[in-house]
Write a structure and sequence with these properties.
alpha+beta; Kinase-like_dom_sf; Phosphorylase Kinase, domain 1; Put_LipoPS_kinase_InaA; 14 strands; InaA protein; about 35% helix; 3-stranded antiparallel beta sheet; about 240 residues; Transferase(Phosphotransferase), domain 1
């Protein structure tokens, strides 16, 4: 059996057995494998692992690598996403619960695996706008989104792929919750202003059903929040 690694290092034989189990577990493709970064990546919805337990999603990648000055020859992308999920949790940014993440070399190619819990009751921001909502509900969602993004950026962390389809919301009455998905391009920036500019510029182009008035309301909410650590506010 080839060595299995996580973002924290090499796994024990138990961790390697868990990789085999998760890798061999079949499910329904919800995002068919597509060719990216010199490899392929797809997402499966796994069968229930027990009564009353949350559903799980398995991101499976083969030869799907990212490169950086630390890893010029490439490193499995799921390991960067694992680090991002853990960093977001530390910052108080809601993200899917991490169940398992690891990678191994198999027949000369990297296989990467990321298993997370479903965000039960959430829908993407774009889908939510299609459902229709009151002004109070929209403002509650946008206020919460502003808070989540501010927490992310206070930690100088950039989402890297901040599209409406990667922002998930759950609304009950006028109470809103917001979580972020698909963090495989997330990274920490030296300057917080660069993370802010990149993410807000990206979301402004990929906000789907969000009208201009709501976009301006989101920006106003975001910039009304203190940056913390004595920092100043940054323009979008």
């Amino acid at each position: 059996m080839s060595a299995v690694i996580s973002a924290q290092g090499r796994l024990s034989s138990f961790g390697q057995a868990r990789f085999e189990r998760w890798w061999d577990l079949d499910g329904k493709w919800v995002e068919a494998p597509n060719q990216r970064r010199g490899g392929e990546s797809g997402v499966k919805l796994l069968p229930a692992q027990g009564r009353g337990l949350p559903r799980l999603y398995s991101k499976r990648q083969v030869g799907h690598l990212y490169r950086s000055w630390l890893h010029p020859f490439g490193r499995p992308t799921v390991l960067r996403e694992e680090l991002a999920l853990r960093a977001c949790e530390a910052l108080g940014v809601p993200v899917p619960n991490l169940v398992f993440c690891a990678a191994r070399q198999h027949q000369g190619r990297w296989q990467g695996l990321l298993v997370t819990e479903e965000l039960s009751g959430y829908v993407s921001l774009g889908q939510w706008y299609q459902l229709g909502a009151t002004t109070a509900q929209r403002h509650a969602v946008l206020q919460q989104l502003a808070c989540v993004l501010k927490r992310l950026h206070r930690g100088r962390r950039q989402h890297g792929c901040l599209y409406a389809k990667h922002i998930y919301v759950r609304v009950e009455g006028e109470q809103a919750e917001v979580a972020l998905l698909d963090l495989e391009k997330s990274r920490r920036r030296l300057l917080r202003s660069r993370a802010v500019r990149h993410d807000l510029d990206q979301l402004s182009r990929r906000r789907e059903g969000m009208p201009e008035s709501d976009w301006q309301y989101l920006l106003a909410c975001y910039h009304s929040l203190a940056d913390g650590n004595g920092g100043s506010r940054h323009a979008a």
